[in-house]
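Troubleshooting log. The previous run stalled partway through. Resubmitting the same two chains, unchanged.
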Amino acid sequence: MTTGQVQNFFTLLGLPESCSVDEALLDRNYRALQAQWHPDRFAAAPPPERLAAVQQASLINDAYNTLKTPLRRAEYLLQLNGVDPHRGDNQTLQDGAFLMAQLQQREELEDMLERRDEAGLTRLQKRTREEQGALWRQFGESCESGRFAVALIAFQKLQFLTKLGYEIVAAEDRLLD
Amino acid sequence: MALFTIAEPGQSKPRAPARRKRAVGIDLGTTNSLVATAKEAQADTLPDAQGQHLLPSIVHYAPGHGIAVGEHAIAPAGATSISSAKRLMGRGAQDIDYQLPYTLRPAPDGGMPLIETPHGPVSPVQVSAEILKVLAARGAAALGGELDGAVITVPAYFDEAQRQATRDAARLAGLKVLRLLSEPTAAAVAYGLDKMLEGTIVVYDLGGGTFDVSLMKLQRGVFEVIAIGGNSALGGDDFDRAIANWILAQAQPGETLDAQAFSKLLRIARRVKHALSDADVTGIEFNGWHGEMTRAAYYELVDGMIQQTLRACRRVLRDAGIEVEAVDEVVLVGGATRSPRVREKVQEFFGREPLCSLDPDKVVALGAALQADVLAGNKYGSDMLLLDVIPLSLGIETMGGLMEKIIPRNTTLPVTRAQEFTTFKDGQTVMALHVLQGERELVSDCRSLARFELRGIPPMVAGAARVRVSFQVDADGLLEVSAQEVASGVHSSIVVKPSFGLQEKDIETMLLESQARALEDREQRSLREKQVEAQRHIEALDAALLADGRELLSDTERAVLVAAMDALRAALAGNDAALIDKLTHELNACSTDFAARRMDRGIKAALAGHTLEEIGR
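Second attempt completed without errors. Output:
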């Protein structure tokens, strides 16, 4: 966030407050806003106006990058609805079974890397993606019905799976090198 | 928030057709620099009075007062000519692990070193400012008045300190910077690639001494540098050197040449290189040796070097995770890309014909000029918008010498990020921040940008104060830091100590010095004028006294006049302009009567049949 007062990013970019966004519209509105506020448009303006443009364009960039990335967008939506994933009592996931499964998958990943098991990696990746898809549906439905505490749990699981997804890609890269 | 109350762009502008803004694009290069200007989407580089477009980036500080730039600065002995100052911009003495033809004086605090000159030590920023002044003057002359602004290009990999040094140089040169633009972006703009909606662009830049390759992605008008690579010790000059060494090995095996003889051989090598662009074989004559070089032999010499540049291209593609087939355009930059062999190999590697219709030496300056024209407001309503990204992550030092990233690399600019810090001692009112740039974990592996000291934090118990520090990086990639204690709303004052740049007060001093020098120069000239005028006056009076002094003046009158002349003569030996002025006036006053009497006498003499000429003698 750039300032104490926060303009709602959805409003700023002319989008309805929702966990899914119209990406084409997001891109179009972002470009239109930058075309108006980018400091380059104020290159010849007096310093106070230039400074204001830098701040405004920063805010627009921040809003765009937040809404563009699904996980960041989800986090922002939760914050808007009073459920901050970074707040102390929200930080830990209380789902033992899920956490156990995570540990297991990570061990599997390391084994595959050692065995140079490309096919295994591909399977793990497919499974992770399916799991992510299911969680995104759950997150969306919970938000729609206003059950943000439930949405928070889906979000936390998605954070784990997204990280696992990156690790799988990194492992594949290492096998290819 | 007052952000939304400011006028929309254009609203505050006068409705009357405004004067066309005088804007230029400047390519401040390591070896050569250029200035260009654009009109109606047509950009052209500007030549000097001799018709030369390229200004060698060389500055010569002559003993005495003179500073020469460009061709004139190539000193005969080479002793005090400063070249490649760009490589020193925003760098520390420990970064310079190569030989320079001049002496550096390391900065006491490990900052940017100074260069020893007959004018005393000068900063690389001042050297660059001298080059910019010459280009700015060229632009002002061509556009018919003082410049309204300039876009200056910088390499894509330039970090904050190097960009800041470039901006400081512009300020010293009296230039208003509209934007610091990355060189590959400028090259892409020169070819109009900003009009592409989406695409992947490679800029292949082979200069005289360096090779840079940049992979950019264009998405919805955002130019994003995805990956960069290159070789800072490989360039077109190496091609010439390879041919020269080949000729030497054929003509005088086992011999070496002195610098002068070798530079003569290099000229022959360049001619051979050009000849082999068209012919299959060319004759060579060197020190009585007659021989020939075939195109195949030439290819054998340079292919290895070209292959090295292509390996760097492959590495960049791999870093970006992009297949060579996904590249939409390849742009050629740098004089060495004129070589047909380079073009052929680049085309073979990328599987597409590279863009090379523009002069590869000028393409960066041309793109900068197009952007300058838009930014100065000459093309208001143009939808060209170049969004740049921060090339390296920005962060701060945390406990244990680790770097914590605050703004990751490739974040679209401008960007503002706030971070909260707290005090660790009761009543602590000062806090220190160390800002770094780089991708590595350890502080020692990153580049130190600046140390900030926050003062005036309200005294509280440890951990109670919440200091919110805002890091703002503008569209040029330049950082500004501000801080506020959240609970009390007290703004902390910030003392900045750049690690490699000039401090604000250094720039002020340099600006004042250059203004003072200009003033001094003016005073010097007016003093010289007064001295010459007074001297002429005294000589005329001497002659008049000798001719008519005894007849027309009493002894007292003559004594007064001679005393006034002696006083002025004595003052002329000194440099006191005011005294010379005063005594000249006094001498004028007491010689007026004498002059009038001589005039009368002349008229009388004329009436008596003498000519004025006789009397005047």
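Takeaways: The two ends of chain A are 39 Å apart (CA to CA). Residues 1-5 of chain A have pLDDT under 50 and may be disordered.
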